[in-house]
Structure to design on (361 residues):
């Protein structure tokens, strides 16, 4: 396997883009201004015609990968991710903006907690109806709180198969979140918002949004794929879990009577309470257990359920905790000079593909 990242073996940030140059500039600048952890930013372009390619080729902060065509989100990321050799990986969208220090914090959490597989980055919409919520984040039919974006262990991502390519676009992040939990790792969320989402199409009408979703799913029933893959978790929908959800929802409604939209009760905002109620693998003691910590809403599937023969993911051993949080992995040389942007790798599998590592994707 040919290694694509050359500047950092610690944190690699994968960012896919297509014809969103101005938004792309925003997310790149935010990453580079607000991240001190040794890292490498790899931007994957799907054939942009708006000046993005020239920008990528001339910004020394970026390792560009020019795929030259739209492959679907899962395949686009996976073609690159399979050739990343680093301790941690983060995936982002080109219409996001990282809150300064968020990636440093997420890496630090993983460094000191070997049972954590991923840190979900709370995401807040800046446009559309979602801008009135504290943050976005859905709960699947199996009671799993989804991570729209996250920082995770690269070896763990590889062990679960990276993004599931049975989906073309949507549902890849809920699938990855569930897969990491099924591998026997915990998934936590940042306590504060870590990603601002400048959802470009959020102000469109319902018909336009539905058409976009239909186009990008390519006729695939994403929900059915997810439902079948993780069907062994259906047994967790019991009378007890339903009663718990109703009770927590009721308590939250009482606590927030007359409260402002950004109010907190027992250190949780409204959305946190919704997730505590609906998350079947989040302890009711979570608010107390994680007082004073930069993360909470910790999810973990019970061992007896993980041992089910219907679990689609092979359990993987937890790594040893790092003795030096935030330092580079062996072989990392922060500040190492990198190849000139825009050079093509010999033997690339997709026309126009570029990166700085020898070999092909």
């Amino acid at each position: 396997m040919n290694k694509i990242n050359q500047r950092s073996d610690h944190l690699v940030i994968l960012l896919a883009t297509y014809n969103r140059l101005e938004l792309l500039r925003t997310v790149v600048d935010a990453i580079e201004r607000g991240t001190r952890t040794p890292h490498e930013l790899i931007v994957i372009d799907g054939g942009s015609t708006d000046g993005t390619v020239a920008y990528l080729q001339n910004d020394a902060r970026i390792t560009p990968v020019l795929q030259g065509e739209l492959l679907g989100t899962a395949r686009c990321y996976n073609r690159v991710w399979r050739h990343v050799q680093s301790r941690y990986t983060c995936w982002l969208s080109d219409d996001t903006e990282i809150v300064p220090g968020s990636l440093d914090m997420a890496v630090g959490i993983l460094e000191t907690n070997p049972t954590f597989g991923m840190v979900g980055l709370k995401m807040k919409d800046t446009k559309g109806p979602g801008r009135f919520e504290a943050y976005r984040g859905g709960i699947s039919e199996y009671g799993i709180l989804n991570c729209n974006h996250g920082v995770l262990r690269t070896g763990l991502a590889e062990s679960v198969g990276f993004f599931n390519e049975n989906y073309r676009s949507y549902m890849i992040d809920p699938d990855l979140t569930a897969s990491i939990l099924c591998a026997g790792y915990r998934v936590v969320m940042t306590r504060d918002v870590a990603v601002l989402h400048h959802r470009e199409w959020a102000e469109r009408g319902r018909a336009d949004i539905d058409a976009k979703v239909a186009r990008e799913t390519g006729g695939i029933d994403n929900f059915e794929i997810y439902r079948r893959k993780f069907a062994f978790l259906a047994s967790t929908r019991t009378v007890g879990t339903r009663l718990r959800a109703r009770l927590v929802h009721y308590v939250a409604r009482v606590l927030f009577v007359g409260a402002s939209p950004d109010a907190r009760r027992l250190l949780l905002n409204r959305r946190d309470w919704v997730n505590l109620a609906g998350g079947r693998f989040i302890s009711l003691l979570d608010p107390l257990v994680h007082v004073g910590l930069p993360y909470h809403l910790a999810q973990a599937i019970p061992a007896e359920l993980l041992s089910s023969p219907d679990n689609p993911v092979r359990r993987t051993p937890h790594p040893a905790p790092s003795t030096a949080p935030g330092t580079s992995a062996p072989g990392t040389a922060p500040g190492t000079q990198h190849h000139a942007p825009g050079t093509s790798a010999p033997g690339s599998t997709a026309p126009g593909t570029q990166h700085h590592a020898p070999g092909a994707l």
About this structure: The chain has twelve helices and 13 strands. Confidence is low (pLDDT under 50) at residues 323-361. The chain has two domains: 11-237+280-306, 238-279.
